[in-house]
Structure formats: C-alpha cells, structure tokens
C-alpha cells in the first residue's frame, strides 16, 4: 500500500512511522510513505502558503493554489488514483471499520491542515472525504495522520507476526478486547485466572468472549446500544452482569 502525506511538516509523520509495526511494514515493503510539502509549490520569495480569512477573525487559512499544485504533483507521482482524505474535526469519526476500509485501498493520500484550516474551495474540489480522530482540536493534521497511518498499516497482510493478533483487537467485532495476562502466574498484584491455565480451549474462548462482552457493557455501553446479541452472547453477558451488578455504568443498570 502507498500512503502520501500532504503537509507543511511531512517529516513529522515520517518519523512517527519509522518505529514498531509501521516501521516493520515499511521495511518489508508492505507500505510506502511519501511526503509532499505545499510550500515547495508556493510562489514568491516567502513561499507563502496562508493568508487572512475573509470575514475577519483570528488565525490564517491555507491557500488554494499551493495545495492544488502540491496535490497535482502528488497524484502524478503514481498511476494509481489516491483517495484524498482531509484530517479535520468536521469529518467522520475514525473507527476500526473505517481503518479496515482504508487499509484495503491501494493508495491513500492524507491532507493535513494547519492554522484555521484549508480554504473550503480546495476541500470541495480536491478532497474525497474528511476524517476526524476525535472531538478535540489539534495544532495540525499531522498527529491525526500518524494515527491513521498506524491504524491502516497494522492491517496490511504480513505486517503482524501473528495474523490472529489483529482479529483479537478491541473493536474488531464491535466489542472491547478481553484482559490479557503473562508470566509469572503468581504475583503480589494477583493471580492469572485459572481458566487461562487450564488448557481447555473451549472454556478459554468462552471466558474471553464473556470478558469482552462484560468490559464493553461496563466501559463502553454505547457500543451495545441497539446491538442484537446471539442467545449465547446474551447468556454470557447476563451471567457477567449478575456477577458484577454493582459495577453497572450509569444509565445502563438493569438493561
């Protein structure tokens, strides 16, 4: 997969993507990352890329032309047409389903804004979709782009040493992940649950599923709103709720 980063600081995303899973994906040739700076396509001695906003108010807005030329150069660097995603607080919220959708693309371009954002005319003419990583404001889109790169890279075939690792992640099936334990079995902080040491794979799978359902009910009840559970899952959750009745989240007790 190829990901192009259009940013005034493309090296920031490149450095974030040099380590861990993403770095391994790049080393294995499963992901290529390319940076594009709009300032390289600006004119004049000062390479101006922003100006005051019409209508007054604080802050500056990124200009159309440097970005338009930068996007044209980016598109021309590879025959595969990229999907251009603008990282913006106004965009759809990134979730695991969206990460999987983007990971299936052969080429993705991430457009990072700065200042008060990007001239709306450029967004309307050149952007395929807007994407947000949460309901808060950052200084620019670079951190959000790094998040998207990481979420997408780890879903590429061959990136994770154990393919089942991604399948167990939180949100893969709309639930939070179950708890995990390692050595030693006995510790001052507690003991590894006996079921995980039993060797009974069916019992372990049942325990993990119940923990995932229970944790979701306790910590993110919104993920269960409107969800129709199978009879087996409903039984697991009912049993878990009875055991943890005192831990019910506000507004969710008794459902």
UniProtKB/TrEMBL annotation:
Domain tRNA methyltransferase TRMD/TRM10-type: 1-225
CDD domains from the UniProt entry: TrmD-like
Keywords, in A-Z order: Cytoplasm, Methyltransferase, S-adenosyl-L-methionine, Transferase, tRNA processing
EC number of the protein: 2.1.1.228
Binding site for S-adenosyl-L-methionine: 113, 133-138
Reactions it catalyzes: guanosine(37) in tRNA + S-adenosyl-L-methionine = N(1)-methylguanosine(37) in tRNA + S-adenosyl-L-homocysteine + H(+)
Entry-linked InterPro entries: Alpha/beta_knot_MTases, tRNA_m1G_MeTrfase_C_sf, tRNA_m1G_MeTrfase_TrmD, tRNA_m1G_MTases_N, tRNA_MeTrfase_TRMD/TRM10
Family matches, as SUPFAM superfamilies: alpha/beta knot
GO MF terms, alphabetically ordered: tRNA (guanine(37)-N1)-methyltransferase activity
Compartments it resides in: Cytoplasm
Chief location category: cytoplasm
Recorded superkingdom: Bacteria
Pfam family, one: tRNA_m1G_MT
GO biological process, one term: methylation
Matches recorded under Gene3D superfamilies: 3.40.1280.10, tRNA(m1g37)methyltransferase, domain 2
Function: Specifically methylates guanosine-37 in various tRNAs.
HAMAP family: TrmD
PANTHER family the UniProt entry points to: TRNA (GUANINE-N(1)-)-METHYLTRANSFERASE
Family: Belongs to the RNA methyltransferase TrmD family.
Subunit structure: Homodimer.
Name of the protein: tRNA (guanine-N(1)-)-methyltransferase
Organism: Pseudoxanthomonas kaohsiungensis
Gene name of this polypeptide: trmD
């Amino acid at each position: 997969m190829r990901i192009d980063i259009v940013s005034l600081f493309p090296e920031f995303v490149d450095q974030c993507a040099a380590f861990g899973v993403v770095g391994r994906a790049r080393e294995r040739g499963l992901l290529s990352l390319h940076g594009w700076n709009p300032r390289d396509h600006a004119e004049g001695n000062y390479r101006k890329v922003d100006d005051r906003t019409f209508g007054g108010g604080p802050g500056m807005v990124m200009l159309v032309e440097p970005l338009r030329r930068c996007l044209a150069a980016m598109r021309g660097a590879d025959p595969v047409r990229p999907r251009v995603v603008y990282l913006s607080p106004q965009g759809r919220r990134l979730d695991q389903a969206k990460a999987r959708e983007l990971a299936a693309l052969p080429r993705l371009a991430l457009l990072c804004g700065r200042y008060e954002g990007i001239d709306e005319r450029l967004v309307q003419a050149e952007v395929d979709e807007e994407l947000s990583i949460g309901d808060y404001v950052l200084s620019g889109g670079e951190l959000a782009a790094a998040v998207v790169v990481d979420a997408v890279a780890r879903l590429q075939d061959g990136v994770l040493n154990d393919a089942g690792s991604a399948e167990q992640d939180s949100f893969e099936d709309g639930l939070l992940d179950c708890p995990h334990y390692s050595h030693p079995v006995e510790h001052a902080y507690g003991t590894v649950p006996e079921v995980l040491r039993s060797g009974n794979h069916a019992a372990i799978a049942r325990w993990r599923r119940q923990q995932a359902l229970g944790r979701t009910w306790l910590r993110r009840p919104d993920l269960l709103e409107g969800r129709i559970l199978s009879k087996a899952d409903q039984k697991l959750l009912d049993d878990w709720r009875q055991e943890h009745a005192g831990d019910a989240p506000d507004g969710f007790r008794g459902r």
